[in-house]
Amino acid sequence: MSELSTFVMLALATGAAAFIQGTVGIGFALIVAPVMGLLRPDLLPIALLILMLPLNGYVGLRERDAIDWKGVGWVSLGRLPGTLAGLGILVVMSTNGLNQLIGASTILAVLAALFAPVFQPGRRACAAVGVVTGVTETATGVGGPPLALLYQHRPGPVLRSTIALCFLLGELVSLAILALAGQFQLHQWLWALALLPALAAGSVASRFLHHRLDARRLRLGVLSFALLSGIVLLVPR
């Protein structure tokens, strides 16, 4: 596949994923990480984490009055040890192993999102989710499903804004630790910058439609796509 074709496919995935996350509250990494893993695995997780910074900043600011600040605090507290563990996984794994980890993590997250029972998140649950999210997002770029499980039965504005802020703070921590570990490469930054227009288009579109769409059906569509992508990534190459 040519470089242009790869870019077009990643841009389409980025725009669609930004729209879905801005509407539902999750979905960006579930869509972009498997596509990026198939087309340009060398961009993970740095380019994905960079792209998520402006997206989550925008979503969190848009519905800032609904943020669950206590939940954000406990999730962030658990995030640091998880981030260090995720860095260790990233350092020792090959590209094929990382793809399989992304695939397995995605499938497990989808199954958990579909079948997890209703519960009210407390301090321990928030901290535990912070640890898990730190591991998976630092190693693979995928961290949304555990947070979505935590807030899936809260009102839409609470879910979207709180998850966005948790992501934003956690991504800053992950990127800082990855930078200190020497995991950054220039081409990852350049690809992320090139994909920003697609990200902005999807984000702005979500602003006008997130109150009107059937979030339940859209969420099921995201999870179905993620499940299929995860299965494809598990196939050895």
UniProtKB/TrEMBL annotation:
Pfam families: TauE. This is Probable membrane transporter protein. GO terms for cellular component: plasma membrane. The lineage of its organism: Bacteria, Pseudomonadati, Pseudomonadota, Gammaproteobacteria, Oceanospirillales. It comes from the Bacteria. The chain crosses the membrane at residues 7-31, 43-61, 73-95, 101-119, 162-182, 188-206, 218-235. It is a multi-pass membrane protein. Keywords: Cell membrane, Membrane, Transmembrane, Transmembrane helix, Transport. Belongs to the 4-toluene sulfonate uptake permease (TSUP) (TC 2.A.102) family. InterPro entries: TM_pro_TauE-like, TSUP.
